[in-house]
Amino acid sequence: MQLSEQELIRRKKLEDLRTLGVEPYPAALYPVNHTSKKAKNEYEEGKQVIIAGRLMSARIQGKASFAELQDSEGRIQVYFNRDEICPGDDKTKYNDIFKKLIDLGDFIGIEGELFTTQVGEKTVMVKDFTLLSKTLRPLPLPKTDADGNIHDGFTDPELRYRMRYVDLVVNPQVKDVFVKRTKLFTAMRNFFNDKGYFEVETPVLQPIPGGAAARPFITHHNSLDIPLYMRIANELYLKRLIVGGFDGVYEFSKNFRNEGMDRTHNPEFTAMEIYVAYKDYNWMMEFTENLLEYCATQVNGTTEATFGEHKVDFKAPYARVTMTDAIKQFTGFDITGKTEDELRAAAVEMGIEVDDTMGKGKLIDEMFGEKCEGNFIQPTFITDYPKDMSPLCKAHRDNPELTERFELMVCGKEIANAYSELNDPIDQRERFEAQLALAARGDVEATEFIDQDFLRALEFGMPPTSGLGIGMDRLIMFLTNNQSIQEVLFFPQMKPEKKQVELNDDEKVVFEILKKQTPIALPTLKEAAGLSNKKWDKAIKGLTAKKVAKVEKTGDDLIVTAL
RNA sequence: GACUCGGUAGCUCAGCUGGUAGAGCACAACACUUUUAAUGUUGGGGUCCUGGGUUCGAACCCCAGCCGGGUCACCA
């Protein structure tokens, strides 16, 4: 491994510390009794405190130094005075250990007493300090000046996401986002638990991926020798639990979808789904607006939130607009009672791309998505979706073409989706079959599996139920004013970092040829390389061992492929 | 997937018309006992993303690739 100059220096300091009898990674606990925040909030002149954290800045002025210690709750200034730390003749601990061998980023423990400096900063006068863990890599060190400007920020998104641990250390505002994320989950959980609803867990590995239309990840179970799918939704399992007699069940569900990645889509994401028996979607709308008002207040202390250029207010109640009215409002077209052909013609007139795989529901959905969706900035319930795009939703009590469904739109984006759940098992079977027909017609979004066990469960009877799903990542984006999902996930999915592989000279020769033409027949490659038999054999075996090339037998031919 | 912008020191970035690779922070050395983006002096540090090509000469121009950002498409 190639080490930078600074890394070599820090490794050398490890040795020097051990020579002086200082263990850089001590085993014993350190008896911390204050955090930086507690020391400042419960400040008393002369109070003895024991704190620990990373040393994040140092202003050395000869025999005295000011430094900043950062712990989980922030930073506090610490004052190192040579004669306080080294009351006797031996000044090694200050002169050598502190000034030379401790680096920015190191974890140290400090015993000292509180005082206030001449410039009014609450500070810990260090009486003794202990190295708790040495850091071998230099941290990026953003600095904030008197005007609040950040210099030398650690801002490159790639580095920040790949090394989130560093991001969290040096960018306090990043930590705040994740604190809020956890507050949101806690708030939602409390809201549900207070009402007596029951948090459950359902399978992530599913034999049939149901409850949504999305491409799943496929895996394989060895001893059962069957394919299993990572869940794309947990809806069908939660409804089975309503069949089983729970009045209300919810789950924070990590879902996995094998689709494109961008700033609003990560392959794994978190949804919250809740199902409540004996309710309908009207009840659920009221429940949802109360829930979000509560959550926004718990997270931000206010119902108002800023998202980009928009100010939104999560205070209940929210506007309710039917999909028909929304389309009428923004396009002037009334979808009521129209045939598929009439809808298609209207869509074309609106400048929407259509094709023959689109059914009525899809056409209406496109009209809404293209012309209406973006206009709903304040939280708005869009209700009564077309039947053939909602296969798990009960038909509307007043209009059999529609369903009792709503989505909650905020800043033109969907953050929640809810139904009066379909509990007629015969209707449900027909809807699944209609989806199969759509899939056969070429609609890649239509569900192509029928979950027979779910239908069997419904045949045992499910009470009237309303269900709600909330995209937790989207919601926290709104509550923390982040435009990108990567900012609200600790570890967003990234392409793996390419590891540098060391090749010897013969291997390089072969690999260069292989890169220009891959795959290539093995004899051709061997001839082109011009190596002796022995060298050739070593080189090609070296390349396959380092997993930069592979050799495959196709019939009688050996084929070499660069990886 | 398309378009577009970027990849230079540990971090943030500059680098002119193709002509010996730069700054600030960080690091090392010295000075400095109430500073706070501490300060002053001195010094070290580079696979200019990778591989080809053009050229007397490439961080810079051309081609291919890798990684990332943004926009769009896709994604109930």
CATH superfamily annotation of the largest domain: Bira Bifunctional Protein, Domain 2
- The helix count comes to 18
What composes the largest sheet?
8 strands, mixed
Report the portion of residues in β strands.
15-25%
Assign the CATH topology of the largest domain: BirA Bifunctional Protein, domain 2
The residue ranges in which pLDDT falls below 50 over 5 or more consecutive positions are: none
The N- and C-terminal alpha carbons lie at a distance of 23 Å
Label this structure with key terms.
single chain, 563 residues, alpha+beta, BirA Bifunctional Protein, domain 2, Arc Repressor Mutant, subunit A, eight-stranded mixed sheet, globular, RNA-binding, NA-bd_OB_tRNA, aminoacyl-trna synthetase, ligase, aa-tRNA-synth_II, metal-binding
Describe this structure in words.
The protein is 35% helix and 25% strand. The chain has 563 residues and is α+β, with helices and mostly antiparallel strands. The chain folds into 3 domains: 5-139, Nucleic acid-binding proteins (OB fold (Dihydrolipoamide Acetyltransferase, E2P), Beta Barrel), CATH 2.40.50.140; 175-318 and 378-487, BirA Bifunctional Protein, domain 2, CATH 3.30.930.10; 505-562, Arc Repressor Mutant, subunit A (Orthogonal Bundle), CATH 1.10.10.10. The strands form 6 sheets. The protein has an 8-stranded mixed sheet with strand order 8-12-13-20-19-18-17-16, sandwiched between helices. Strand 18 and strand 19 form a beta hairpin. The longest helix is centred in the first third of the chain and has 23 residues, at 172-194. It is globular, with a radius of gyration of 31 Å. The mean pLDDT is 88. The structure holds one RNA strand of 76 nucleotides. Homodimer. Mg(2+) 1 binds at residues 407, 414. GO terms for molecular function: ATP binding; lysine-tRNA ligase activity; magnesium ion binding; tRNA binding. It comes from Pustulibacterium marinum.
